[in-house]
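Work Package 4 report. The design task specified in the project plan requires that, given a folded chain encoded as structure tokens, an amino acid be chosen for each position. We show below one input record used in the internal validation round.
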């Protein structure tokens, strides 16, 4: 019997599972931890590397019209002025006048069921906040006395290059989104690569935001990774390319990543920034509710025109066939690695009651996302001939798949451990291996075991389709 919840209890179980089983740890935990910053442990890093590799393969390698970049985290401070982040990249902040804790006003409104879209203007949120003041309570001390809303800029400042201790110009920021490194390389790529509009530039990398409140584990963090595709189009083709991009990204989640369609949906933003033509989010049904997984935006020529204005560089593209000259319009798909990771854990986490009454936790990852593909154990750890044979099999397989060798000797416990981290197959080496050259291969989901010749093992796993 399978029990699968979608609620906060499930979420708490996933959070404790992540630490207990080496997927996610809090940053600098031995020093008390850093709020809203996390480290990925040995199994977590395998999963996020797979997410990024799959995204890259389908977004860059599989396409002739997309190239990749890896731009620096530090950029000219002028980038963030041109992009509008210095003036406008802020969240609505309110402070409890009694205990002085700070909150995001739109999140407080959400808690009492009042919709406040992240993309609403500060003025709109202030108005809704004022209308609902009597219903709002400080989650910490219960006070209802809050300051008026102020704008809190999310850019993270650094002291890079500030040797005098005084800023005589703008501070250098840690980048707030990776796409700015794409826009600033648009001319370089145009001049050094054989690209023709329409074409895309993709990047995976870290971004930093001074998020006011730490909420929902790795869902909203102050340091996170983005996977962004900026696609440069002819002005009159922007919306048709946007529709294509939406379709591609939906298929990526459902067909490539294998996410259940009932757990995904579209959300169209009503409150658009002045230059945007359209903005959709792909939402995932996280254990704490529907929330943004990825944002897709039709951005017009805003980004390149702003950088042209502030850098004084000509961002026009000249069509080699027609001679037509224009600043390309951009459609964007931007997804968070951590949110993809949390989605995979939410899809996979399962508690099952077995026929013998035992309970097992099993991470039913699609095998391509499982951090360990094959675990190998000797039936008994004190039989050197079994240990030797098991090691040989492990050594044979480990360059093909990520494998784990475990010689703790208690097969039942080994199976439970591997079920918990989602290992699709366990190989046990026993006395029949020595006599007949076969091993037991146990399937994570069915728990059925079959005998496979050691010489057939590689083929057996490659027939299963994972690598
Ligand atoms: N360049 C567009 C852009 O950055 P965004 O909606 O601010 O758009 C895109 O972010 C994606 O980045 C989000 O859908 C989410 O997956 C991820 N993301 C944004 N802020 C995040 C945070 N504080 N923690 C984790 N992921 C975040």
């Amino acid at each position: 019997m399978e029990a699968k919840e979608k609620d906060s209890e499930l979420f708490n179980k996933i959070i404790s599972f992540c630490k207990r089983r080496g997927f996610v740890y809090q940053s600098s935990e031995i020093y008390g931890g850093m709020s809203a910053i996390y480290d990925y442990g040995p199994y977590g890093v395998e999963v996020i590397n797979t997410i990024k590799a799959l995204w890259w393969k389908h977004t860059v390698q599989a396409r002739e019209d997309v190239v990749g970049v890896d731009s620096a985290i530090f950029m000219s401070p002028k980038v963030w002025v041109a992009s509008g982040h210095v003036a406008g990249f802020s969240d609505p902040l309110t402070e409890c006048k009694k205990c002085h804790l700070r909150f995001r006003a739109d999140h407080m409104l959400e808690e009492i069921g009042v919709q406040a879209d992240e993309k609403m203007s500060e003025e709109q949120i202030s108005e809704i906040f004022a209308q609902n003041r009597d219903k709002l309570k400080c989650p910490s001390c219960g006070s209802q006395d809050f300051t008026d809303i102020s704008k809190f800029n999310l850019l993270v400042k650094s002291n890079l290059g500030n040797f005098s201790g005084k800023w005589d110009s703008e501070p250098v920021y840690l980048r707030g989104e990776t796409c700015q490194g794409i826009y600033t390389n648009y001319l370089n790529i145009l001049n050094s690569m054989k690209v023709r509009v329409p074409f895309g530039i993709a990047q995976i990398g870290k971004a930093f935001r001074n998020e006011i409140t730490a909420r929902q584990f790795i869902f909203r963090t102050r340091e996170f990774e983005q996977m962004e595709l900026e696609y440069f189009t002819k002005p009159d083709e922007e919306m048709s390319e946007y529709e294509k991009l939406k379709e591609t990204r939906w298929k990526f989640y459902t067909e490539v990543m294998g996410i259940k369609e009932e757990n995904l949906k579209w959300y169209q933003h009503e409150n658009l920034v002045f230059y945007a033509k359209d903005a959709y989010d792909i939402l995932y049904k996280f254990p704490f509710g529907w929330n943004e997984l990825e944002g897709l935006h039709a951005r017009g020529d805003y980004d390149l025109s702003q950088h042209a204005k502030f850098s004084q560089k000509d961002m026009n593209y000249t069509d080699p066939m027609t001679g037509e000259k224009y600043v390309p319009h951009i459609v964007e798909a931007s997804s968070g690695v951590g949110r993809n990771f949390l989605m995979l854990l939410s899809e996979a986490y399962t508690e099952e009651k077995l026929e013998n009454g035992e309970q097992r936790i099993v991470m039913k990852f699609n095998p391509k996302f499982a951090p360990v593909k094959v675990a190998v154990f000797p039936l008994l750890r004190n039989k050197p001939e079994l240990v030797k044979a098991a090691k040989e099999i492990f050594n044979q397989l480990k360059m093909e798949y990520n494998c784990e060798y475990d010689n703790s000797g208690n097969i039942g416990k080994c199976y439970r451990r591997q079920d918990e981290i989602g290992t699709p197959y366990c190989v046990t080496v026993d006395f029949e291996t020595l006599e007949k050259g076969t091993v037991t291969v146990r399937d994570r989901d069915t728990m059925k075991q079959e005998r496979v010749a050691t010489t057939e093992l590689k083929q057996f796993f490659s027939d299963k389709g994972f690598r």
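The two ends are 30 Å apart (CA to CA). Validation will be extended to a larger panel in the next phase.
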